[in-house]
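S1.2 Input.
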Amino acid sequence: MDIAHAHITGKLSQDPEVKFHGSTAICEIGIAVNRRKKEFEEWIDEVNFFNVTIFGKEAEFVGQYGYKGQPVTVFARLKMDEWNDRDTGQKRKKVALVSQTVTLQGRKDGQSSQSNQSSGESYGQRTSETVVEEYPEDLPF
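S1.3 Output.
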């Protein structure tokens, strides 16, 4: 069995925004991952940005509780998107990250995450109840 997954921990680069395609919630988030490296005799901070697509109830959860700068961990599957460039007609490709699990770490008020005893869910973690295998062809963005 082939596996193409990514495990990313970083900070949300902007406040999450949820859009709906029919009744399916879709949330696009950006994650900034900092890396400190030494070049010659000087330490340099390098930042990489990753875009992640979240679907369903998990998208609604992140949209409601996530905020810019919040630490987050995402476990996602990798998906190859292909399209033809409108201007040049050239075939283009990019690797897309589709969330399977998102864990929000910490809260705006600075308190640590608490368990929600009534539902049995952790405050900061949701898993998708709906698995979307492919992007719908007529997404508005």
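S1.4 Remarks. The chain has one helix and nine strands.
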